[in-house]
Specification:
The structure holds 2 protein chains of 2 kinds. Chain A is mainly α. Chain A is built from 11 helices and no strands. Chain A starts with a helix and ends in a 5-residue tail after the last helix. Chain B has 9 helices and 9 strands. Chain B is globular. The chains are: A mainly alpha, B alpha/beta.
Chain lengths: 246, 237
């Protein structure tokens, strides 16, 4: 497994694209927290503080695309053949990608979390408030955002291995986030909708962009998201095993 | 080690790409896998490399399927089309990825870059490369693990005359060291001076397998090749 992980790591560190993508995460967090304060967010309200820190979860959209690149990007460029020549055991190739991209996705979430704390602290002190880091809700919010980043990187790897067409996979993922899940959610009602991946992630990272009232509890959202990640990862492994690479 | 293809058949849906092809490419020789475009050369190589699953029959390297080789990159060097590189990656980084996978020391990267004449372009991104340079990078990838078997798909594509001469010497030298070298090509004249043996396929079927000399002397080669690769329909027309 070590050569495989080392090779995957060298692959991702030798490209600029994935890093530019992940670098957008902290920028989104800075912009989001700033926007919250500038639009009149009360820095003395603990709920507003949580809202500010919950911006970490937005990075998950980027780690999803980051994960998509892992396999679909290789099919697009044709380097997947090279990868399977190095490691004919395709199951382990996918496993290594899930591990490397999952970890890097989690690391991106960690960076976003640190940036979120720093920028929130800066705005809070500028507006005469004080950042409260002692509350367990603060840490749960940050941890939820980080977990969502990790889970969506894994889901991205799985979806990319399934769809293989990079442009198609990115379009599908973005359309699902922006349109499809909301519509499906309305059709099936909020009782069922909260089990959908992005509703689950909103429960986990507490972004609650849709303003849904009936989200799962945070731990429940985490478990559901974990289930989706396992489902996509498993499907990725199974569909990759027998497929011809032409 | 040698490449041994036995009764290999591969169908993609309704299309039979390769039909019951049998041949052996021995160690210490350059074997030309020849045939027109779409004749099944690439599918045969990809089956030997475990990238496509044979419908029936086998393609063995040193007696085992590719997937069962202990260290595949040390045993087999493969060069497929010149498009399998990420355009944004530097040539040296591309090889470092493979070096980590093959568990060869990083100094091999510089050795093979030197060997294929790309040492001066090692830090350039592949998107800046000409087709000929990509071919050289493909060869460097194949040579990286110092393999005993080399399977090369149209390696001369995009090379200038000097590059072709260089490639010829390289392949002859590798065979002299006792390696099994297989070169797929659709241009017989391109490989006539390089190969010891030829395997001719057409429309997915084997037409000839044997020493180059059996095809006839010098100028007769091209006409023998054309005769062997013409399809029955074309003959009737």
């Amino acid at each position: 497994m070590r050569p495989m992980l080392k090779s995957e790591f060298r692959k991702v560190t030798s490209l600029r694209g994935p890093w530019l993508l992940l670098a957008a995460g902290p920028l989104i967090v800075v912009a989001g927290v700033t926007g919250l304060v500038e639009s009149g967010g009360n820095v003395h309200d603990p709920a507003v503080q949580r809202q500010a820190l919950a911006h970490v979860g937005l990075t998950a959209v980027l780690t999803l695309i980051f994960g998509l690149i892992a396999v679909a990007g290789e099919y697009r460029g044709g380097s997947i053949a090279d990868t399977f020549l190095s490691f004919p055991g395709r199951r382990r190739v996918i496993a290594a990608k899930l591990a490397v991209y999952g970890l890097l996705g989690g690391a991106a979430g960690l960076v976003s979390a640190l940036v979120a704390v720093a920028v929130t602290a800066a705005w809070w002190s500028a507006r005469g408030g004080r950042l409260h880091l002692s509350g367990s809700l603060t840490w749960l919010t940050l941890a939820g955002g980080l977990g969502a980043c990790l889970a969506f990187a894994v889901i991205g790897v799985g979806l990319g291995a399934l769809v293989r067409n990079l442009a198609g996979a990115v379009a599908l993922a973005l359309a699902w986030i922006a349109l499809v899940e909301g519509i499906v959610g309305q059709l099936i009602g909020s009782g069922l909708a909260r089990w959908l991946p992005f509703y689950a992630s909103e429960a986990l990272d507490r972004t609650n962009l849709a303003g849904a009232t009936r989200l799962l509890p945070q731990w429940g959202g985490g478990l559901v998201l974990l289930g989706y990640a396992a489902l996509f990862a498993g499907t990725a492994v199974v569909t990759t095993l027998r497929r011809d690479v032409t | 080690m040698e490449l041994e293809v036995r009764d290999l058949t591969k169908t993609f849906g309704a299309v039979t790409a390769v039909r019951a092809v049998t041949f052996t490419a021995p160690a210490g020789q350059v074997t030309g896998l020849l045939g027109p475009n779409g004749s099944g050369k690439t599918t045969t190589l990809r089956a030997a490399l475990g990238l496509v699953r044979p419908t029936s029959g086998t393609a063995l390297i040193g007696g085992v399927p590719y997937a069962r080789l202990e260290r595949p990159r040390r045993a087999v060097g493969a060069m497929l089309e010149a498009t399998g590189f990420h355009p944004g990656r530097r040539a040296r980084d591309h090889l470092r990825v493979l070096a980590a996978a093959a568990e060869v020391p990083d100094r091999r990267v510089d050795e093979v870059l030197d060997q294929v004449g790309l040492a001066g372009s090692a830090k350039r991104r592949v998107r800046e490369f000409s087709l000929g340079m990509r071919q050289r990078l493909g060869l460097a990838s194949a040579l990286l693990g110092d393999p005993q078997v080399l399977l090369l798909d149209e390696p001369a594509n995009g090379l200038d005359p000097a590059g072709m001469a260089w490639l010829r010497e390289l392949l002859r030298g590798l065979a002299r060291q006792g390696r099994c070298v297989v070169v797929a090509s659709h241009v017989l004249s391109e490989v006539a001076q390089t190969v010891d043996r030829v395997v001719i396929v057409s429309a997915g079927e084997l037409r000839f397998a044997g020493p180059l000399s059996e095809l006839g002397p010098g100028g007769a080669l091209e006409s023998a090749f054309l005769k062997l690769t013409v399809t029955p329909a074309e003959l009737a027309g």
